[in-house]
Design goal:
With 151 residues, this protein is mostly helical. It is built from three helices and two strands.
């Protein structure tokens, strides 16, 4: 047990446990020592893991190098089927469009873009006309626009 002495000069003295080293712990029972080997994450412990039921595949992650060819083939097939099912249910795999339909879609997309650009240009032109009008010139104290004379 630790002994603490209180001297009159308010200093705390701690002598510790005789024989103990700093940072060392006393040995525990040998069954729980850190020297026991730990199982690798891919090793199976037959005492803890129940055997898989007949016809059921084990879907837990397994290192690729420890899989047999048939296991690897089964997993790849399963993953491909899942992606195909997902694509079909979400409608991603639409039938191929003919080149004519693709060309029409591109034309319509370009036509929409041109219409948008022309609408912006028309708005800009209207703003310029308003800015250049005599009424705005009077409000902003700019000289009135002179008519161009033919030479």
């Amino acid at each position: 047990m630790a002994r603490i002495a209180d001297h009159g000069d308010h200093t705390l003295t701690h002598y510790g446990i005789p024989g103990m080293k700093w940072g060392k712990r006393s040995a525990r029972s040998s069954s729980k020592s850190s020297s026991t080997s730990k199982a690798t994450p891919f090793a199976k412990n037959p005492a803890k893991d129940p055997p898989p039921a007949k016809g059921v595949t084990d879907l837990r992650p397994k290192h690729i190098k420890r899989m047999s060819d048939t296991e690897l083939r089964q997993r790849i097939n399963r993953m491909q089927m899942e992606t195909q099912y997902k694509d079909l249910t979400e409608g991603k795999s639409a039938p191929d469009k003919s080149k004519a339909k693709q060309a029409v879609e591109k034309f319509e997309k370009g036509h929409k873009a041109v219409k948008g650009i022309l609408a912006v240009a028309k708005t800009a032109q209207a703003i310029y006309k308003l800015y250049d009008s005599n009424e705005v010139r009077m409000v902003t104290n700019r000289p009135a626009k002179e008519d161009k004379k033919k030479k």
